[in-house]
């Protein structure tokens, strides 16, 4: 039986009582029919004791086949893996997949380290390579000899209030007029930079009054995780103010236009004021546009935060508030990795301890006041008893 998952054909049948269900890695029905027949034939030959040797394939073919089989990915998730597939194909595309051994992977790790990539970035690339080789049945033989790099666990930093003001002030003066509202979507709404770039005007539910955005929500569209897509985050007042100014630049933008469309920036007049031109509403801004602008702000302020730390600040401040549950954090921030959730749990534990300490301090104060009142009442009572006691009869 043939059926589709997304755009890819799958087949399902029973062989000797066992359910066989596999992807054909193809969008072509005729190829899918041939793949099902070939799979049945291999099973029958195996039952008859006829051994077949699979022909090795180029890594580029194996990588493309693996990516085509990832039918449940979101658009951003597919883009995430596609970038690593392109990088790996440049490195190994000319090799047969079985020729990639532990030594070749170690050489790749050393090369990426020399390029200045972090352990996290290198491990993500190697994890994609592992998935491709595992799909081709080649990973188990080399897995014991492949070592992942150590990752830093303290890379995420939350803005202090002083640093936040400095960064926002510098962002407001940036030659890129989109940087200030873009940064606030991470800082006040917890969106990942890729989620903000993917926003369209239709993702905003705004309340306008006299030409000013007074409130509303953002409905996150494309996200790299299923939990991230579709979540609703209320807008803060300062984000509403930033959106009022940003949207005023594009009064004729259609509803399906990107909120941060591709554009170029020029400088006009004696004041060299930034001017937005060459706007393409059907194309989002590039991935490095805001990163370059934010790097310029970092150099100007002398601070060392990353652009992604704005989202980390959003989640950290939620975690520091004992009144905000972990479920609410997940709903507002989308997917939070187990490693980061553990880190936020430490923050929540500190917040809980501070809350209990404050409660305990208040309780002690109340008890002290109560004991003082009771002691005062008791003293007053004893004094009254002495004052109003009947005098004893005089001794004869």
What secondary-structure arrangement, pairings included, does this model have?
Elements: E1 2-5, E2 8-15, E3 18-23, H1 29-47, H2 59-68, H3 75-92, H4 102-114, H5 119-135, H6 161-172, H7 179-187, H8 193-197, E4 204-209, E5 212-219, E6 232-234, H9 237-247, E7 261-268, E8 273-284, H10 289-301, H11 309-320, H12 326-333, H13 338-388
Antiparallel strand pairs: 1-2, 2-3, 4-5, 5-6, 7-8
Helix pairs in contact: 2-3, 2-5, 3-5, 4-5, 6-10, 7-9, 7-11, 11-13
Properties at a glance:
13 helices; 396 residues; hpI Integrase, Chain A; 3-stranded antiparallel β-sheet; 2 domains; 8 strands; alpha+beta
Explain what this protein looks like in three dimensions.
- A hairpin with a 2-residue loop joins strand 4 (204-209) and strand 5.
- The longest helix has 51 residues, at 338-388.
- The radius of gyration is 32 Å and the shape is globular.
- It is α+β, with helices and mostly antiparallel strands and 396 residues long.
- Residues 383-396 have low confidence and may be disordered.
- It has 2 domains: 2-145, no CATH class; 161-336, Orthogonal Bundle (hpI Integrase, Chain A).
- It contains 13 helices and 8 strands.
- The protein has helices spanning 29-47, 59-68, 75-92, 102-114, 119-135, 161-172, 179-187, 193-197, 237-247, 289-301, 309-320, 326-333, 338-388, and strands at 2-5, 8-15, 18-23, 204-209, 212-219, 232-234, 261-268, 273-284.
- The protein starts with a strand and ends in an 8-residue tail after the last helix.
- It has a 3-stranded antiparallel sheet, covered by helices on one side.
- The protein is 50% helix and 14% strand.
């Amino acid at each position: 039986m043939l059926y589709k998952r997304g755009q890819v054909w799958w087949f399902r049948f029973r062989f000797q009582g066992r359910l066989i269900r596999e992807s054909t890695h193809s969008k072509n029905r005729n190829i899918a029919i041939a793949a099902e027949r070939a799979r049945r034939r291999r099973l029958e030959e195996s039952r008859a004791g006829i051994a077949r040797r699979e022909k090795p394939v180029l890594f580029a073919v194996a990588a493309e086949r693996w990516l085509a089989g990832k039918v449940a990915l979101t658009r951003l998730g597919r883009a995430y893996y596609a970038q690593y597939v392109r990088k790996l194909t440049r490195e190994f595309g000319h090799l047969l997949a079985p020729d990639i051994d532990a030594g070749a992977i170690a050489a790749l790790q050393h090369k990426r380290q020399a390029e200045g990539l972090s352990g996290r970035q290198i491990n993500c690339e190697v994890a994609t390579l592992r998935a491709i080789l595992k799909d081709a049945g080649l990973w188990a033989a080399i897995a014991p000899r492949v070592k992942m790099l150590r990752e830093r666990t303290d890379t995420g930093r939350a803005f202090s209030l002083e640093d936040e003001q400095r960064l926002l002030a510098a962002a407001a003066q940036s030659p890129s007029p989109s940087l200030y509202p873009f940064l606030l979507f991470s800082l006040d709404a917890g969106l990942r930079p890729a989620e903000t770039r993917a926003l369209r005007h239709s993702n905003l539910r705004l309340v306008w009054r006299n030409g000013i955005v007074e409130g509303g929500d953002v409905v996150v569209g494309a996200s790299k995780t299923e939990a991230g897509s579709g979540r609703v985050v209320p807008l803060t007042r300062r984000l509403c103010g930033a959106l009022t100014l940003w949207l005023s630049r594009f009064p004729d933008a259609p509803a399906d236009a990107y909120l941060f469309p591709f554009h170029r920036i020029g400088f006009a007049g004696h004041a060299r004021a930034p001017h937005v031109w060459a706007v393409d509403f059907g194309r989002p801004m590039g991935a490095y546009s805001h990163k370059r602008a934010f790097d310029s702000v970092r150099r100007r302020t002398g601070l060392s935060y990353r652009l992604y730390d704005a989202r980390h600040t959003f989640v950290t401040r939620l975690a520091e508030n004992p009144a905000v549950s972990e479920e609410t954090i997940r709903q507002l921030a989308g997917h939070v990795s187990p490693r980061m959730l553990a880190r936020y749990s430490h923050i929540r534990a500190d917040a809980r301890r501070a809350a209990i300490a404050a409660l305990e301090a208040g309780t002690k104060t109340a008890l002290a006041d109560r004991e003082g009142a009771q002691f005062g009442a008791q003293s007053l009572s004893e004094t009254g008893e002495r004052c109003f006691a009947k005098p004893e009869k005089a001794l004869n």
